[in-house]
């Protein structure tokens, strides 16, 4: 089915102009039904992503970030239940869209990049065949679709698009696969682009390249972005505003500058203390961790959801849910928001000195040595050097 095959009213929904936020989530409650029980994983989550804005959603693994993304696109698994709240994309209520209109919206207006590009692609189909499906949904077929695939691969800085189009996913590196799925996501020029941990599986060098690519493409396509990550450093680099999610609750929200330089929630402070300190040797700097664990899904916490792991928690925090406190565009759910500044954002110097002899490793300590190592692959009659 293509967009042209859909009912006229469904296509009109995708083409209707407006000034509403690209994404608006209000009082969202989501639960997963497991063994006959509803385990609540999101509670009263509210935020919006403006037109052309990049909004970062940050938190530990298990906080509900990916559930927010899936709910926002109407893609929850079968046991996922939206128990309350609203989700609007460009002003359209997702709950009010029938299946044809929802398909049309996904075909033209929204895209998602998943954290594991290798699993997002079909291993039995070539890259070109998979990319062409995006254009076929828009009514573009044959050679024109393949030409557009090649053009999109060039836009995401893939040097040999013809070779990539003919390749299978297992023949490409992780960074190359991530560029392919970004190209697929941007092929329809979406209004909203959801990035769910898009660089988690990449090494630091490739991650930096992909982040620079995303930043450039965001400006080129003028897309609104919901950027999901557990890494505050990445979020600071990529986003205009940030929401901090903990145990299914949005505990703090504000501009990237205000939130990271003047946090108003203890959880945000603890996340910042998990980052490497600037200018410190990575071999000696000790990173902090957050002691304790997230409350299990479905558990009802009588007070603040972070109280069990908080340095400022008292009896009030354990018994009474904190009311929202707002300071301009910066808001927090914390009884003691004014005391958060007492928590040092710095990381203490390591107590263990550097190991002596790091500049000259003794021969008997070497377990693997390589000399003059080269490796090439023969593709299409040409030798491509991977290591030289």
Task: Describe the secondary structure blueprint for this structure.
Layout: H1 8-15, E1 23-34, E2 37-49, E3 54-58, H2 65-72, E4 80-89, E5 92-93, H3 99-108, E6 110-113, H4 117-120, H5 127-137, H6 142-155, H7 161-165, H8 174-186, E7 192-196, H9 204-221, E8 224-229, H10 232-238, E9 241-246, E10 249-255, H11 256-261, H12 266-272, H13 315-319, E11 324-327, E12 330-333, E13 375-379, E14 382-387
Parallel strand pairs: 3-8, 3-9, 6-7, 7-8
Antiparallel strand pairs: 1-2, 1-4, 4-5, 9-10, 10-12, 11-12, 13-14
Helix pairs in contact: 1-3, 5-6, 6-8, 8-9
What does this entry look like structurally?
This protein is α/β, with parallel strands linked by helices. The protein has 13 helices and 14 strands. The longest helix is centred in the middle third of the chain and has 18 residues, at 204-221. The N and C termini lie far apart (48 Å).
Structural class, by secondary structure, is alpha/beta
Number of DSSP strand runs: 14
Query: Secondary-structure element sequence?
Result: HEEEHEEHEHHHHHEHEHEEHHHEEEE
- Give the overall shape, derived from the CA principal axes: globular
How much helical structure, as a percent, in the residues?
Answer: 25-40%
**Through-space gap between termini:** 48 Å
Work out the radius of gyration: 24 Å
Count of DSSP H/I helices: 13
- Biggest sheet descriptor: 8 strands, mixed
Approximately what portion of the residues adopt beta-strand conformation?
A: 15-25%
Low-confidence stretches: 1-17, 279-284, 347-358
Reading side by side through the largest sheet, how are the strands ordered? Answer: 6-7-8-3-9-10-12-11
Mean pLDDT: 85
